[in-house]
Amino acid sequence: MPQTYRFPHRHLLGIEPLTPQDILAILDQARAFEEVCERPEIKIVPALRKRLIVNLFFENSTRTRNSFEIAEKRLSAEIINFDADTSSLSKGETLVDTALNLQAMHPDLIVMRHSAPGAHALLARHMKASIVNAGDGAHEHPTQALLDAYTLRKRFSRLEGLRVAIVGDIRNSRVVRSNLWLLTKMGAHVTLVGPPTLVPAELKETWPGIEIAHELEPVLPHQDAVMMLRCQFERGTGAFIPGQGEYVRFYQLNAQRLRLCRPDVAVLHPGPINRGVEITSEVADGPNNLILDQVTNGVPVRMAVLFLLCNPHGEQVP
Questions:
Q1: Which residues are noted in the entry as carbamoyl phosphate-binding (predicted)?
Q2: Annotated binding residue at 244?
Q3: Per the annotation, does 113 bind a ligand?
Q4: Which of 126, 137, 189, 261 is the most buried (most CB within 10 A)?
């Protein structure tokens, strides 16, 4: 990170407000924290010692929540995990009132996942603490896009000029929107692939440089990376396709379709995987997959986000 650079954001509500320089600062900082994570013994630094972080997860999460908790512990932060099911929210308290009560306890940073798009922006207007968006409805999931970028940059040593196909349930995906902001800002070429009912054509109004395709096989030979998305049946995906069998027939990444790709193509998936639906186990566990690398890389990337929000000058980590 240049000596003169200062991370200019108090919150991470999405990728949209970030500049390419901000994104590179996060990825570079993550590289430094990856070295901490790879230490054989003590994987902890005192960078956020005496800082209080509250984890507010209003939706189920395994990977993201655990990843944030590990990142916070490796930075030596103090942590409170807020259980929405047993909180006063179940008694009718509003999100803002819950937030103001938390604010009265003086947290430094709040990590939140919520089903309502924009819930984080609402919280940011009422709280002094920094807010990190850990996923809001179908809007954004910024740290997932950052760890995807980190994984791709580590594999290809660049983001500019990469050709990335994002395949599947585009309509319901917050991951795809954050990735569209990030990859296009960094000069990658993105093709969205899926049935017309799951790929809103109006996305080209926001990202005119992207391509949209409804046939997967012609797209595959031209990609450096293929990012498969989970079919979110719990969000109503089934209403937009004739049936699961039809979806598998045309859009599943299987061994036969993988042979259409370059030999070194990278296969990504944000998880959790519907094995046998959007991707077969043979491909998900095969030599091209970077799926567990994404999970591993999530920790240093989230350490970098938390550290830069609390420490915008990017001082040396002791």
A1: 63-64, 113, 141, 144, 271-272
A2: no
A3: yes
A4: 261
235 is in an annotated binding site: no
Q: In this structure, are residues 273 and 291 in contact, taking their beta carbons and an 8 Å threshold?
A: yes
Query: What is the C-alpha separation between 298 and 296, in angstroms, rounded?
Result: 5
Confirm or deny that 221 is annotated as ligand binding. Answer: no
* 43 is known to lie in a ligand binding site: no
pLDDT in single tens digits along all 318 residues of the chain: 566 789 999 999 999 999 999 999 999 999 999 999 999 888 999 999 999 999 999 888 889 999 999 999 999 999 999 877 666 666 677 888 888 888 888 999 999 999 899 888 988 988 899 999 999 988 999 999 999 999 999 999 999 999 999 999 999 899 999 999 999 999 999 999 999 999 999 999 999 999 999 999 999 999 999 999 998 777 766 777 778 899 999 999 999 999 999 999 999 999 899 999 999 999 999 999 999 999 999 999 999 999 999 986 666 554
Radius of gyration (Cα) for the chain, nearest Å?
A: 20
174 appears as a binding residue in the annotation: yes
Q: pTM of the full predicted structure?
A: 0.94
